[in-house]
């Protein structure tokens, strides 16, 4: 089959309707969840009584630890409150402030827990009195006391203490420490006075610091444990103290380092996409030299054109750069025959040895500088993650927020690895996917980034022949890859979930470990990747890691941009995710719920992401939707599908569709970090008004199992929203006959109301999005007609006339 260009909708011509969306579609009624307050008040009252006793003692202890010699303008207590169900922010935020003197500053566990500042101690005493009255009523059967019903909605509360703020052990704080500042949306002047007094202390103590006003945090360099302790015990404006310890290099040893002669890159002079390699540098004295931009500006750790990281100084950033520039085929061919590149390289050096501490503030400033100097750069790789894993349902870090904001503001796409779990080799004796039940296999910050692309590792090692790893097959995930940390099942009931809210996005080849003997695993040469070394006298080396899966995926993105330079980054992301597949990666029943959390949308498929063919057409829609709108696009199907004898009537086509959009993230509210609910689906040939009707009034679904890609009916207690969504549809001849060969693609969007302090007044109200639809024949004898005929009956254009000779081989993993 000949590779063909993807097709792009002329969106304004294909569009048939724009209307205001009515949220009455047929998931359920539009009522909020039932009040989750428990009926067993005795147990709740007993628990709250213990909370009050502990809270009183903790406040006294906190006050005793204060240094009265410090000039600090305010003393604020913070209360962490756990609720029976989600806190309805837009409904109760003001009530808690007015009635109890509690100002909400942040929410966690998707609004089931909140952090509140005691801004009025007299009013807060009213809160304590209400809790005490509830206890008297429930435990002593005192019918004379009165209490607020809000008390029954609380499951517990505690004082925010120093050990809650400190996220690392004091003796392990390291060279760079971050103070994440608390937001007081209704008391900004109080906050600024506290921050200023904190800065005065930092300066008087001789601590080198950076105040990141944009991201509301302070970076300290080489503070002592005693200084950190004094800060968190006295300055009541700090939510968390974290370390920036990160790691890139897995310290496993491989036996073989091979000498390799150099090779020439045939197309080094071509106008190729530039990819920023955020890593340990790229060695200029290698075969990559013609692809490396000669610019030593962007570094935090020595020359960016020197790479001495890793074992025996074989490098890390150089191997990453080689994968980005040269891709799968050249590595599989051991750089023999004609070597052509897919990208040029800009080295952005953040570490000399691949581990240690990093200034996130300096890194972000450097990335903005890169974009200012090279605005044409759209793609980056980042293969350094925090060395510690994220706890279940942990909220977004300041670092993740900064990277998501950078991607949104600068039209950038960063390919981030999940991080490597180095302990897996000592904790397993065989390949066992149930290992991923442990929280310690969760991904590391900033792999939870939503505007960027997160990649885990498949066991494939880019070699032909027998697979010698421990995994069930080369398509399966490695045990060292890390899984998504979000588990909505512990927050919501089973019927209320978002099946698209997971990380990673995809997995890609990262190499596997092997069996040293029947019961012992080891890092071995045969199942590992063969990669470019930073040392030209050695040439190549063996390594494994998610940090090599990420640049392989970035290589695919570079090839997409090379073929289709006018496509948006969201289309690039959607093409990669839409092409990925779970088909050959079954998970057993006991681990089936972990499947998306471990492998995301599945294994990357370069061929499907890059090309259409005669029997498979990929259609791309790029458009903008306004807040509260629904947009309808007819999808017309060729007549031959119902007129010709195709050999069967059911499942003649498979439609795979992915939507991606970027968003400006919102801090301090995990639930509405992405405040945009956008959903799409493919419906019967109905109008917008009919599609919006509930099922009991009119059935617009083509299949009972195919509804909107994301559920937006929960207004006061919403689900977290995903900006990446994927759906599937198998098409029967009867479906086409019944709908006159036309289905309707519908998209709708709205902004969440559940944001601490409300949405910023200047928050966007129109949202660009991309939808990729792959329509492929699934019949025994393909017709060869689909691509050409679908063009004729829809408003489509061929994106790019391609040089098909430069295409992929067909022997990629067929998933």
UniProtKB/TrEMBL annotation:
Annotated keywords: Hydrolase, Protease, Serine protease
Record GO cellular component, one term: extracellular space
Biological source species: Kaistella chaponensis
Record-linked Pfam families: Peptidase_S8 (PF00082)
GO biological process, one term: proteolysis
Domain Peptidase S8/S53: 274-589
InterPro entries: Peptidase_S8/S53_dom (IPR000209), Peptidase_S8/S53_dom_sf (IPR036852), Peptidase_S8_subtilisin-like (IPR050131), Y4bN_pept_dom (IPR034074)
Name of the featured protein: Subtilase family protein
MF terms in GO: serine-type endopeptidase activity
Listed transmembrane segments: none
Family, per entry: Belongs to the peptidase S8 family.
Keyword Metal-binding listed: no
């Amino acid at each position: 089959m000949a590779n063909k260009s993807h097709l792009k909708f002329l969106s304004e011509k294909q569009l048939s309707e724009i209307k205001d969306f009515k949220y009455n579609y047929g998931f359920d009624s539009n009522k909020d969840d039932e009040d989750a307050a428990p009926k067993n008040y005795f147990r709740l009252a007993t628990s709250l009584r213990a909370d009050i006793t502990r809270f009183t003692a903790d406040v006294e202890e906190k006050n005793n630890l204060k240094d009265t010699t410090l000039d600090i303008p305010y003393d604020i207590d913070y209360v962490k409150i756990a609720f029976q169900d989600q806190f309805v922010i837009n409904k109760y935020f003001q009530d808690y402030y007015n009635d109890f003197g509690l100002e909400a500053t942040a929410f966690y566990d998707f609004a089931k827990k909140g952090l509140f500042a005691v801004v009025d101690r007299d009013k807060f005493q009213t809160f304590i009195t209400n809790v005490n009255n509830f206890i008297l009523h429930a435990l002593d059967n005192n019918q004379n006391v009165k209490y607020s019903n809000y008390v029954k909605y609380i499951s517990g509360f505690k004082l925010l203490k120093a050990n809650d703020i400190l996220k690392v052990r004091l003796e392990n704080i390291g060279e760079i420490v971050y103070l994440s500042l608390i937001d007081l949306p209704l008391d900004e002047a109080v906050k600024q006075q506290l921050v200023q007094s904190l800065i005065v202390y930092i300066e008087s103590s001789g601590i080198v610091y950076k105040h990141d006003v944009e991201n509301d945090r302070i970076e300290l360099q080489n503070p002592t444990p005693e200084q950190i302790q004094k800060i968190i015990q006295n300055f009541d404006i700090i939510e968390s103290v974290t370390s920036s310890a990160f790691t890139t290099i897995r310290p496993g040893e491989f036996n073989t380092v091979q000498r390799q002669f150099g090779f020439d890159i045939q197309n080094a002079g071509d106008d190729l996409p530039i990819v920023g390699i955020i890593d340990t540098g790229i060695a200029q004295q290698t075969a990559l030299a013609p692809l490396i931009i000669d610019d030593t500006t962007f570094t935090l750790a020595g020359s960016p054109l020197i790479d001495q990281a890793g074992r025996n100084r074989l490098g890390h950033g150089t191997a990453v750069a080689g994968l980005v520039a040269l891709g799968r085929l050249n590595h599989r061919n051991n750089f023999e025959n004609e070597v052509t590149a897919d990208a040029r390289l800009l080295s952005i050096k953040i570490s000399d040895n691949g581990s240690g501490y990093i200034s996130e503030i300096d890194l972000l400033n450097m990335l903005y500088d890169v974009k200012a100097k090279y605005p044409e750069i759209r793609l980056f790789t980042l293969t350094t993650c925090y060395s510690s894993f994220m706890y279940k349902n942990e909220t977004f870090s300041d670092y993740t927020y900064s990277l998501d904001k950078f991607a949104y503001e600068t039209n950038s796409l960063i390919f981030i690895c999940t991080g490597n779990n180095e302990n897996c080799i000592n904790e397993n004796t065989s390949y066992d996917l149930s290992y991923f039940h442990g929280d310690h296999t969760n991904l590391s910050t900033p792999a939870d980034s939503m505007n960027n692309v997160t990649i885990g590792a498949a066991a494939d090692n880019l070699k032909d022949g027998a697979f010698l790893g421990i995994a069930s097959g080369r398509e399966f995930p490695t045990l060292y890859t890390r899984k998504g940390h979000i588990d909505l099942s512990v927050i919501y009931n089973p019927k209320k979930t978002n099946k698209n809210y997971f990380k990673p996005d995809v997995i890609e080849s990262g190499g596997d470990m092997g069996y040293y003997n029947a019961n012992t695993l080891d890092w071995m040469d045969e199942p590992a990747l063969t990669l470019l070394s930073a040392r030209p006298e050695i040439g190549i080396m063996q390594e494994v890691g998610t940090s090599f899966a990420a640049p392989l995926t970035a290589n695919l993105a570079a090839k997409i941009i090379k073929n289709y330079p006018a496509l948006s980054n969201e289309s690039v992301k959607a093409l990669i995710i839409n092409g990925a597949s779970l088909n050959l990666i079954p998970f057993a029943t006991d681990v089936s719920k972990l499947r998306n959390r471990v492998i995301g949308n599945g294994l990357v498929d370069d061929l499907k992401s890059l090309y259409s063919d005669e029997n498979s057409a990929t259609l791309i829609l790029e458009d903008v939707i306004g807040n509260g709108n629904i947009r309808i696009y007819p999808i017309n199907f060729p007549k031959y599908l119902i007129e010709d004898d195709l050999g069967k009537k059911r499942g003649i086509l498979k439609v795979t569709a992915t939507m991606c959009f970027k968003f400006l993230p919102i801090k301090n509210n995990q639930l509405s970090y992405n405040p945009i609910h956008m959903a799409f689906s493919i419906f019967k040939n109905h109008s917008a008004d009919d599609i919006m009707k509930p099922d009991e009034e009119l059935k617009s679904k083509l299949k009972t199992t195919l509804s909107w890609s994301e559920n937006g009916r929960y207004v006061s207690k919403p689900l977290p929203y995903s900006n990446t969504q994927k759906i599937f549809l198998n098409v029967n001849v009867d479906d086409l006959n019944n709908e006159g060969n036309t289905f309707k693609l519908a998209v709708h969007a709205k902004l969440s109301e559940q944001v601490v302090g409300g949405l910023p007044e200047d928050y966007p109200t129109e949202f660009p999005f991309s939808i990729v639809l792959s329509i492929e024949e699934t019949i025994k004898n393909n017709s060869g007609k689909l691509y050409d005929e679908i063009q004729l009956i829809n408003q489509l254009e061929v994106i790019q006339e391609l040089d098909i000779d430069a295409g992929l081989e067909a022997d990629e993993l067929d998933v």
